[in-house]
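task queued by scheduler; priority normal; single chain, no ligands, no partner chains; default sampling; output format set to structure tokens
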Amino acid sequence: MVRQGARWKIGTGFNIPIIIEPWIRSGSSISSIGDVMLALQPCSVGYLIDQEEKVWNESLVHQLFPVETTQNILNTPLYHQVQMDRLIWKAEKNGNYSVRSAYRICIEEVINNDHLRKPGYWSGIWRLKVPPKVKSLVWRICRDCFPTRVKLRSRGVNCSSECVRCEDPHEDSYHILFHCPLAVDIWQSANMWHLISPSLSQFDNAPDIIFNLLQIFNLLQRLSAAQIEHIVTIMWSIWKARNLKLWQQVSDSTITILERARHLLEGWREANRKQVSIRQDNSSSTPSSSHHNRDANISWKKPTSGKYKCNVDASFPNTTNKVGIGMCIRDSDGNHVRSKTMWFSQTCSIHIGEALGLYHAIRWIHELQFTNVDFEVDSKRVADYFNNGRGDVTEFGSIMESSIYFLNNHLTNSHVEFIRRQANEVAHNLVKAATSSTSFQVFDDIPTCIIDLIFNEMI
């Protein structure tokens, strides 16, 4: 089971066997079937890598593996910042093992739980704008875990199977909600029997009837929101009446059952309206500091006197197998100092691409022997990890730790901040051009793609 949720993070690759181990992208592995694969069992992944350049030895990979496996290997990214081979937990974003994700893998991948999966329009239940206890009741009915007397007897409980209200010999969810004379009288009194009866003629169990009503509302739109919300809330009130009769010997009238449903739904709606009104009043009065900060970051801000600012962004175009990076340095007057575009031929996840952008920007600033440079990125995950995060053992964590180490040792007066995309337009426009170029480019003069933005942001 450990291997189900684990994958290798590739450093040198010499500690990772080629066969069976989960080292290919997404944690897949190569089976030992075939003479060539059997011969590779003693070999490690490190022999497939050009260690100096930290790239795959393409000719060797093509020679050893079939086309599909070759493509999967070549699409597995390698990073200079990852120096040690490590088995990490792919089921968590930070690569660390957790019991929660192990349980999820057990349930979803290891154990055959097809018998637990019940088809149905489940999203329709959670979209209902009704009190949570009503949604919970509807879900329990549809999951066939509704504690009717018939269900309790099927689970070994020694009790009568007769209906609490009408003494019908078969009290299941269908009978309680739609077949019992009391239930029929309730639906007729609520003027909803004509909405429910067509489903009763098609289905003979409560879950299918409910799913059909939800589909009629959500997909076919032949029921209004008010009608479906009232229907499911009445179901809750019918079940409430059944329990009051069973446990307290209270016999609710039809009017009482309908009024209880109406009061519950209207009270819940009113409480929600008040909460929305309070939130709107709060937002229209004195803005919170977080709102103020967000508004202040909408446009690019010049760095303080004596400092520089470097904006960084990454792009992931679908048309090319490249990751583009753009970076632009400006002074305290907003003047363009220098900008750079670069790209990598191996695609990667968005957050890793953004982390690589910051890493290369920091190295570039150090090469230029600049000091007092602050960096701005529009990836909140990158900025948050740089300033507060630790403990990520994935490739993302290795790249970020390399950036943190390098900045702390060489650019001690620099900081990394998060800004919104609207305030990072210069880097964003630069990076659009990065992947269309055949080589890395450094611009001493303002590139044409950002000239208007630079002058507008200088004002």
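post-processing summary
- The chain is about 45% helix and 10% strand.
- The first strand starts at residue 6 and ends at 9.
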